[in-house]
């Protein structure tokens, strides 16, 4: 699925760590704090903060929690200082992995993530070793039912989207991260509701893996995703329909 790695599909049917509401709220609180710290507490002027708040509201994070996180980010309320990190590495079969993290202790996080890679049969590499296999993009998945393709293309391209493709029963729309909110607003204005929307890392090229390696890589990705400091995990493995079906059966 363009714009969504097969890891996104795997997370959906296995029920990943982010579906645990408490953990998801904690991770998004950090994202809001960082966004407010770097760009200010006004989501109208701070697009990154607006994106983080939208994600928090999408999983029913209470308004008080969101506002508290913003105040911590702007310094109105004392809070822990988080650093943004990106770790990179490879899994079995040569699949590239990029991990976004927010941590208050670099040494602890480095050790924990390195151990997860090693226990999962992968290895954590140096900065830049895997990120060049991806582009950061805004992604919208829109159900095709009842949607006029030409009209939708006109709407999203006028808003600054890069591309739109038909994939099965959905349209996949991509844009630069800085234009995510503009495309989102254009869809909302035209009463079009995406099935999913996010800023993510899209693989430039993928690595085909067999079922055995897919299971091992999936377990590694799940363990990374379950770490409290990890915000997002991206992988460029590609699963054939046969391998994906076998994973779902196991």
What report would you give on this structure?
The chain is of the alpha+beta class. It has three domains: about 10-75, Integrase, N-terminal zinc-binding domain (Arc Repressor Mutant, subunit A, Orthogonal Bundle), CATH 1.10.10; about 85-130 and about 205-245, Alpha-Beta Plaits (2-Layer Sandwich); about 135-205, YebC, transcriptional regulation domain (Alpha-Beta Plaits), CATH 3.30.70.980. The chain is built from nine helices and ten strands. The chain has helices at about 5-15, 20-40, 45-60, 65-75, 105-120, 150-160, 180-190, 210-225, 240-250; strands spanning about 85-90, 95-105, 125, 135-145, 165, 170-175, 195-205, 205-210, 230-235, 235-240. The strands form three sheets. Strands 3-1-2-9 form a four-stranded antiparallel sheet. A four-stranded antiparallel sheet has the order 5-6-4-7, covered by helices on one side. It has a two-stranded parallel ribbon with strand order 8-10. Strand 5 (about 165) and strand 6 form a beta hairpin. Helix 2 (about 20-40) packs antiparallel against helix 3 and helix 2 runs parallel beside helix 4 (about 65-75). The two termini are about 20 Å apart. Mean pLDDT is about 90; it is low at about 1-5 and about 10-20.
* Termini separation: 21 Å
User: Would you identify the CATH architecture of the largest domain?
Assistant: 2-Layer Sandwich
String of helices and strands: HHHHEEHEEHEEHEEHEEH
- What does the overall shape look like? globular
Bin the helical content: 40-55%
